[in-house]
Amino acid sequence: MTVTAILRSEWTKIRTVPSTVWTLLLTFALSVGLGYLLANSMGDSYATASPERRATLDPLFATFYSLTLGQLPLVVFGVLVVGGEYGSGTIRASLLAVPRRGRFYGGKLLAGTALAFPVSVITVLATFFVATSAFGPDAPSLRDEGVPSAVVGACLYLTLICLFAMGVATMLRSPTRSLGILLPLLFLGSQGLGNVPGVKAFTQYLPDQAGMLIMHIVGPQDDPRWARDYGPWTGMGILALWTIAALLGGHLVLRRRDA
Fold first, then answer.
1. How far apart, in whole angstroms, are the C-alpha atoms of residue 183 and residue 229?
2. Is position 13 within any domain?
3. How many domains are contained in the chain?
4. Tens place of pLDDT for every residue, the chain, 259 residues?
5. Domain, as residue range, for 56
6. Is residue 164 part of a domain?
7. Is residue 144 part of a domain?
8. Which of 223, 198, 226 is nearest to 213 (CA)?
9. pTM of this prediction?
10. CA end-to-end span of the chain, whole Å?
11. Which residues are listed as membrane-spanning (predicted)?
């Protein structure tokens, strides 16, 4: 089969399974809705805070923190794009239709990314503008220092974390096992696992913890309790390395194991 035919086939699979479409809609709804609520709450506190207190508050935290929960449906989407066929058993028929497993795997990744990336961009931009409108007059602007990189980083983060989930699902060959590992890991990580003193030296390098730094949602970096041993774009590079490792691992497992 040609690459075009493989992509058309993968698009058909994604489009005809309602759960995959709903996960993308849920990503948008959770991110934007929670972003509005968090920014509205923090905006009220920020407006009445003393100058000393304001120095410890980062408006971007309220703007993008909702993505820590909004990412979870997108991870489910990535797992279902690859792992759904293992759960239903249709992976055997797919591999019979496309015997070249590298091409088959690449088609899945391209089809998933072609949806995940625009959804990430739309979600991040909508979350930013809705949250900043709810925050009030002190809301961050796209002209402020660090804001453009945070917006771009958020788009890259959501896309890479979805690809990471696709690689993990291919390695584990089961949507249940994949979600059983990824959802608790990402949920606990976003809730502060990377800031626990006893394990921070290791957990700060987990994919979500590294990638979130650029979005200003891991805590102020001038505070030793939250500070990371790397910068924002280095953190994004760490997430990219995790993603590449997961995708390569998935490719090796797909090539070497029977369906």
1. 25
2. yes
3. 1
4. 678 888 888 888 888 877 888 999 999 999 999 999 999 988 877 777 777 777 777 888 889 999 999 999 999 999 999 888 877 777 778 777 887 888 888 999 999 999 999 999 999 999 999 999 999 888 889 999 889 999 999 999 999 999 999 999 999 988 899 999 999 888 776 556 666 667 777 888 889 989 999 998 887 777 777 788 899 999 999 999 999 999 999 999 988 876 5
5. 3-196+246-256
6. yes
7. yes
8. 226
9. 0.91
10. 19
11. 21-39, 59-82, 109-131, 151-172, 179-198, 233-254
Indicate the residue type of 113. T
Q: Residue 73 has which token pair?
A: 């449906």
Radius of gyration of the chain (CA): 19
**Integer Cα distance of 246 and 166 in angstroms:** 8
CA of 73: how far to CAs of 42, 76, 125, 166, 196, in Å? 25, 5, 18, 13, 26
Q: Tokens 């590449």 correspond to what residue?
A: 244
Contact criterion met (CB below 8 Å) for 131 and 36? yes
Sign of CA dihedral 125, 63, 72, 201: positive
Ramachandran region, residue 216 (left: φ > 0; alpha: ψ -120 to 50; beta: rest):
left
Cα–Cα distance measured from residue 104 to residue 254, given in angstroms and rounded to the nearest whole number: 10
Determine the Cα–Cα distance for residues 217 and 58; give it in Å rounded to an integer. Answer: 9
Record the tokens describing residue 172, joined without a space.
């584990």
Instruction: Using the structure block, give the residue that is written with the tokens 């291919």.
Output: 170
Query: 201: which 2 tokens?
Result: 């030296």
Any long-range contacts for 46-49 (C-beta under 8 Å, 24+ apart)? 46/135, 46/136, 46/138, 47/136, 47/137, 47/138
Nearest residue to 235 (alpha-carbon basis) of 144, 147, 156: 156
